[in-house]
Amino acid sequence: MQKLIRRRDFVKSLSISAAAALIDRAPGLRSTINKREVIMQLIAGNPHEWYVPAGFFVHFGDSYRWGNAAVKRHLEYFTAIDMDFIKVQYEQTFPVLHEIKRPADWRKMPFYGKDFYRDQLYVVKELVKKGKSLAPVIVTLYSPFMCAGHSIGSQLLTEHLKQDPENVKKGMEMITDSVMVFAKECIKLGVDGFLASTQGGEAFRFDDASIFLKYVKPHDLTIMNEINADCHCNILHVCDYEGGYNDLAPFLDYPGQIVNCSTKLGNGTLSPKELGLMFKRPFMGGLEKNGPITSGNIDQVQQTASEVLSNAPTQFIIGAECALLGEVDWKKVRKVVDMAHSA
Fold this sequence. Notes:
Elements: H1 2-13, H2 16-24, H3 26-30, H4 35-43, E1 54-55, H5 67-81, E2 86-88, H6 118-131, E3 137-142, H7 144-152, H8 154-163, H9 165-189, E4 193-198, H10 209-215, H11 217-230, E5 235-238, E6 258-260, E7 264-265, E8 268-269, H12 272-279, E9 283-287, H13 292-295, H14 298-310, E10 316-320, H15 330-340
Parallel strand pairs: 1-10, 2-3, 3-4, 4-5, 5-6, 6-9, 9-10
Antiparallel strand pairs: 7-8
């Protein structure tokens, strides 16, 4: 522990140019690193002495959604930025259902079986086959609430839950069964875990907090308890894509070996260390999805990453609070990863 702190303080004291020179020597050291072992040891409470893992996720665009093009792009990104996960992007969102206009219409929610996920499962299968020896393979898993939002739009879903949650519950149960099919098939294919994403508890969503607790959270837990029983590298992702949170207490008992969320809470900000202690597990994050890593120059990226790494807890994975937004420069992401791997 003391050795780790001394090294971080030393790196923090360097100029950016001197730190970059130190990082340039890191690839020879990284060649001895087993990414799977680093992540699993971190989860077990034994973080590497100086190597901080990294997980930055991006969407690859329409040309790389399916088939071998998707498999190739995932592996190209993994190699290009030297990430410590192979994270499978999820593209098989639920179809829009124009027939669900009122809460009572949720009884019409169809069930999507294995065939619905066929193209997505092919990408998962190939990435497990090609990548599992290199790093933990984790799959994006949208919550039933998020899938319901894909079906009719998040705003209308929210209104229906306010108006008549018992009727909406019928549709949510069907969606949960469908999502479970996908999760179980991924487990059969040998994934190490999931980035299990949840929404519905944002500050703007429900004035009555019991709606989330009674009609959103139980479906989350049905899925997350299942994957947690079979996989040991699950990331609980409290997604702030649609809005921020005033309270993270409803998520503290969610399963998952790692937590990933924004450091912003209400009008304040929590440190990665505080969030790790709050959730009692390793924290992944520290950088903003639309911050310097996507919109800044290289000096700003290095400065921001240096500050995050200098103040990081020991059980830490550097990343963003969600997928990086916009056109992502892979070279800037790699710079942050190199700094983390030499921290």
